[in-house]
Amino acid sequence: MRPLSVALAAVCAMAAAESAAIAQPATWTGFYVGGNVGHSWGQSDSSIPFTDATTGATLNSVNTTSNLNGLIGGVQAGYNWQTGNFVLGFETDIQASAQRGLTGGFCGAGGITDATVNSRCVPGHIGDNDPFNVAALPVTTTLEQKLEWFGTVRGRIGATMITPVFLPYVTGGLAYGRVSSTSRVSGTNIFGTNGTDPSTLVPVSATFSSSDTKVGWTLGGGFESVLGNNWTGKIEYLYVDLGNVSGSFSTPIITNSGAFLVSRFSSHITDNILRVGLNYKFGAPAAP
Asked: What is the pLDDT of residue 8?
């Protein structure tokens, strides 16, 4: 029996050795794919000037800020290289976004005397005496903007100094996204020969829409942790700057010079992103 026991022990030892040789060592190195959900707190810092279509002069300008807040969700993929306690990586993601915001401005009304009946943007009407004067009415504008989708292409660097299963990291790189803008301008043209009564008030409005795909930059950081086997989870913050979007269109509103009023906007789009994600790593597990 003793030779048989020795033989069985030898076979078991050989099987264990082969299994150990075949098993891949735990590492963060490898390809991964995953998904994420989160919330974004964006901002649009806008300048909204009114100009004269003939002279190009700025008649009135409003500086305003709107929040582009909403839910986001998307997918990501990347590759990590681990060397010692350091992990270098590359990641790209694409996000759907429900972020939108609304802002506006106006060019104020005129006065009631002959000297002030006009406003900065549009003329009023002077009757044959002051009770028949019609002050210029305000010109108003609204600007609605949406961040329809966005994505990033980033590098990552982290370190497993605390424990092999926990990876704090910083990340940064290129960002891109599509911003849609809709501007609506409303006003009232006052017709009639000055110095006579009556006059006619005609409400007018115009709407302009545009979409721009912008390229900018992003910087942030996060924490990723092994959940079990090849699954990891992460929480991440990114700051995104997509630069400026702008637009210009002529309206049917008549200015003091008799030309049409032109509405413009220029908006600087930034975003603050907080999201959680789940990744599946191919090959060896991320950590023992």
From this structure: 33
